[in-house]
Amino acid sequence: MDALARIPQLLVYGIVSGSILSLGGIGVSLTYRILGFSNFAHGDTMALGAYLTLALLPVAARLGIPGGALSPLSFGWDFAASLLLAIAATSLAIALLDRLFFRRLRNANRVTLMISTIGIALALRNLLQFIWGPQPHYYSTAIQRAVLIPRLGIRIKPDQIFIVAIAVALALLLHLFLRYTKMGKAMRATSDNTSLARVTGIDTERVILWTWVIGASLAAIAGVLTGLENKFITPELGWQMLLSIFAAVILGGIGNPYGAIVGGLVVGISEEVSTAFISTGYKPAVAFAILILMLLIRPTGLLGRRR
Amino acid sequence: MELFVGIVNYLVFFAITAGTYGVLSLGLNLQWGYTGLFNIGVAGFYAVGAYTAALISGPPPDVWDGRLVGGFELPFVIGLLAAAVVAGAVAFLIGLPTLRLRADYLAIATIGIAETIRLVLKNEAWLTNGVWGLQQIPSPLHEPIHHGAIGFVRARPDLAPWLGDLISKAYNWFYLVLVAVVLVVLYLVMRRLARSPWGRVLRAIREDEDVAAMSGKNVFAYKLQALVLGAMIMGIGGALYAHYARFISPNSFEPLYGTFIVWVMLILGGTGNNKGAILGAFTVWGIWAATDFITGYLPFTAPQAAALRIIVIGLLLEVIILVRPQGLLPEIKSRRAARDRPKDTGEAESPPP
Amino acid sequence: MSLLTIERVVSGYADMEVLHGVDLAVDVGEIVTIIGPNGAGKSTLMKTIFGLLKPKAGRITFDDTDITGRSPDRVVRRGLAYVPQVENVFPSLTIQENLEMGAFILRGNLRDRLRRVYELFPVLGVRQKARVGKMSGGERQMVAMGRALMLDPRLLMLDEPSAALAPNLTATIFDRIAAINEAGVTILIVEQNAKESLKLSDRGCVFAAGLKCFEDSGPALLANEDIGRLYLGG
């Protein structure tokens, strides 16, 4: 009985963590759809964004952006500015990676590409550890008070509301971008048929660049939100979430960014609600169980189509 | 002279570890090199093999232990066989639902499985003693050889110290021979399989599953056999590791050491080539050991040095993929085109019907 | 005056040479049809011209510019357009979006261009916002051709435009092709079902085994009994 009573609160936690998973998953789906392989370095891209945001705070201060938390949130304008700088830096890093490395492998075997992303993930993660060390870095040490919503019997912190709001806003922006802008349509076209896109005159290299930039930007934001939610970050942050992100992406249909959003929420909620019934030690296995179930029953995902 | 002995002792230790990785590489070569199964869960089979051998041959749980079962103190060989069988059984159970999946899905599934195995090892203390691990795993013939060697040296006080030092490490030499024997046997078995009709079917499946299926072969059955056999080999590797290290815990089988490094070894050595698998194991382990020396001389903290070494391995992999994806010893059949077959982008690289 | 000149082009795929030295010239304002059996290299030629395949030898000149081996997006900018035989539309995009993609390299307003395409293919104008993936073969073919016309190409290459179309639709398609040509576009067609195509062609070329083996005016080829028996289904 006690377990059931905790579900509404766990649902809230699930929506928060699910929002973060969604943002992470969109990039994976887009990369898969347009470039044709699964990018296992996406989690560590999230971590990169999270660390860069911390590192660039002094730069924001130097630019004269005012510090101090914007109550009731735990951060201020300088943090927001730093985040924007970090997004730019992360996108630049990933774009460079494509230019130097992936571009030479456009026609390579997809499994070779996936293995290479594992290597990049490892190197990136350890680069973060090399620079910042394995110990946690704190986003904020202040305890944030949760707001109680008596009607629903749940507590939620202002930061958490912010996380969900940002995720919704970004999802909407992405939708508008894909639907109504020329580059968005070109991305959809390229993901339908890369060869035809080239024949049509679409600059597929530019489409690929945009894909990486959008994916990396969303990943950086997801990483920062993880830091906000957990209060601290470690180099392992991204890799630990990778299985959940892939579960979300496959659940929603790999290659479909909208599916990643749905999948993220489902996985997030499942993971949190599961702790009411099974030991927390097995929480990572929940994502995996969802994954296996989807792969066995409907590999194309809930929103996927047959490729 | 003492330095020489020190180096020799180190090399023996190095060769034992590299040889164990060679066994793992051979197993992966069977799964990925021959059959094209994208198994990122090497660490899982490796761990299952190690734990099985430890539980079969190790001592029963004592007061300090969290365990309730296990520790039958059976001979080494039985532990070795059990490790192979159990690893194979786990592979069978895993393979049944997942082998019909496409490469990327299989990869993700195997990552998840290795993670789950590790979670079980961590959480189910009644079987595995959880995070505290299994201790006092006996090494085969340790008593007679090691104490015999020590006794031999003690009985001869006139023996030169360096010689005494060398002889007292006799057990390591024995274990090295053991690992070498296992490695050679497995290599010969793999070579035999490669040339057999069975091996040819595996390669056909790797190149083009649909074509293989059309010639009447039960593709799924072959894939399952390859997965299971490869896992059994990895299980043997795990047993070799357990009996040498004498202590194992879930952390010994982290994805980095258990899985990723084996992939780098196979790719660098030469996917699809058994000699390449072994060569890759020794080469990469050598590079890994070298980075240990080098970073020792650089002014970094321990976590920094550790991170730097891993970055080197990661970069090594990327360089290989860019520059020589077929590895040092390419597959014997000249199928390089198949290794880097162009993606199917609709841009027909093969003639239209 | 020759708009497109192909000289001794050798081309093929990774392990197989398909074209063994092809010569072909297409003059401004012409409709030229290439006919021949399967495997003769007709599609391969189109792909080679458009840069989807790199020729192993030979030269391709368009409007006095060497375009041998240039990538497709460069070729498009020169004024050629290509409609592949299969998978020639973007299924998850609407009709209008497909057409817009045709003009990707342009900035500015596409209203006039879209209007002209809808005039040519009124059926498309009715369902502009519909997803192409669900449409019939005939409609898709029209979308594909419309997409190719968005850049006002000087040369339009069509790979088996009537493949998998019902006969009445075939007539419509070829009627539209004639209209396009009348508007000043040179057209190069590859066809298996060649009767309809040869009827409106100025010239026809017969390809077999990777070489051009025969060439004559369209009507003459149609009248030629041997050709008719071998390649036009009696």
CATH topology of the domain at 2-84 and 153-231 in chain C: Rossmann fold
- The separation of the N and C termini of chain B measures 71 Å
User: Helix share of residues of chain C?
Assistant: 25-40%
Overall structural class of chain C, as computed from helix and strand content, comes to alpha/beta
- Runs of chain B in which pLDDT lies below 50 for 5 or more consecutive residues are 334-353
- Count the DSSP helices of chain B: 15
Question: Mind explaining what this structure looks like?
Answer:
The complex is a heterotrimer of chains A (307), B (353) and C (234). By secondary structure, chain A is mainly α. Chain A has a single domain, classed as Orthogonal Bundle (ABC transporter involved in vitamin B12 uptake, BtuC), CATH 1.10.3470. Chain A is 71% helix and 3% strand. Chain A contains 12 helices and 4 strands, in the order H-H-H-H-H-E-E-E-H-H-H-H-E-H-H-H. Chain A has a two-stranded antiparallel sheet with strand order 1-4. In chain A, helix 6 crosses helix 7 and helix 10 (237-252) packs parallel to helix 12. The model of chain A has no long low-confidence stretch (mean pLDDT 88). Chain B is mainly alpha-helical and 353 residues long. Chain B has a domain at 16-253. Chain B has helices at residues 2-34, 42-57, 76-98, 103-123, 125-128, 142-154, 161-168, 170-195, 197-207, 209-214, 219-245, 255-269, 274-297, 302-323, 336-339. In chain B, helix 1 runs parallel beside helix 7, helix 2 packs across helix 11 (219-245) and helix 3 (76-98) runs antiparallel to helix 11. Chain B is globular. With 234 residues, chain C is of the alpha/beta class. Chain C has helices at 42-50, 72-78, 95-102, 111-120, 122-126, 137-149, 167-182, 194-199, 218-223, 225-231; strands spanning 2-13, 16-27, 31-35, 57-62, 65-66, 80-83, 155-159, 186-190, 203-208, 211-217. In chain C, the strands form 2 sheets. A 6-stranded mixed β-sheet of chain C has the order 6-7-8-3-9-10, with helices on both faces. Chain C has a 4-stranded antiparallel β-sheet with strand order 2-1-4-5, covered by helices on one side. In chain C, helix 7 links the parallel strand 7 (155-159) and strand 8 (186-190). The two termini of chain C are 34 Å apart. Chains A and B meet through helix 5, helix 8, helix 10 and helix 12 of A and helix 4, helix 12 and helix 14 of B.
